[in-house]
Amino acid sequence: MATTGYRLTASTGIHKGDREYQQDQVALLKHPRVNGCLLAVVADGMGGRSGGRKASDQVMMTAKQLFERYDPDTDDAAATLMQVVQEAHIVIKLTAISSEEEPHSTLAAFLINPGGDCHWAHTGDSRVYHYHGNRFVKRTMDHSYVQALVNRGELTEEQAAVHPQSNILMGCLGTESDPPVDFHFIPKLRAGDVLLACSDGVWHYFNNGELGSVLSTLSAREATEFLIEKARSRAHGGGDNLSLVVVKVESLHA
């Protein structure tokens, strides 16, 4: 990465929250052959005690297999992410046929190429955020009932956060119909950029400004620990599973 004038520091965090079972999964994969190529994935599994875990496991397994075969020089990153979505979706649906539960999973992923371009994909309500320093740049838009209401101007972001039906998804992996997938592309990451992928057990407890100040002032490792701890205390004993990945782009000359 030395040629690009920055280095990447990263951390993952996962916690069961106040739930009996851990159905979230998180992975930060370094490319087996290519330096400076990373894939971050968060999956929030749903459906019965083991169904959700099976679903998020399938997402991770699919992502790992496809990323191992990925060649940043010749392959299209967005197409590879789409393939992860489609293959995981099919495998989860097949799992459902053989089990009693209805396994589903969200997916939020970003892939960083050695040249510094970054590609996102998501389905469901796990999110990817992009900050530059403490300034919010962009986040994914949830495939959820309340996000649809916000998009139509019927709810504000603040109202959506406390809406009783905020957990209803309009689509994700493993459902009857094909999952909705949105993509985003950052042509070149710069020193000072921070990427966060997380499940709703994390983002539900923070506004954009709070996330920005945590991500800009703390190291990747400290930020993951702080966000889990703070979300846990704000959940007051009713917290969901939590999972997150933080990747910071740091100047070599800092």
How would you sum up this structure, described in words?
It is a single chain. The chain is an alpha+beta fold and 254 residues long. Helix content is 32%, strand content 28%. The protein has helices spanning 51-69, 77-98, 145-151, 157-161, 200-203, 208-217, 220-234; strands at residues 6-15, 24-30, 38-46, 104-105, 107-112, 118-123, 127-132, 135-139, 182-186, 193-198, 242-251. Strands 2, 3, 4, 5, 6 and 9 form a 6-stranded antiparallel beta sheet that branches. A hairpin with a 2-residue loop joins strand 7 and strand 8 (135-139). Helix 1 runs antiparallel to helix 2 (77-98). The longest helix is centred in the middle third of the chain and has 22 residues, at 77-98. The model has no long low-confidence stretch (mean pLDDT 94).
Give a nutshell description of this structure.
This protein is an alpha+beta fold. The chain has helices at residues 51-69, 77-98, 145-151, 157-161, 200-203, 208-217, 220-234; strands spanning 6-15, 24-30, 38-46, 104-105, 107-112, 118-123, 127-132, 135-139, 182-186, 193-198, 242-251.
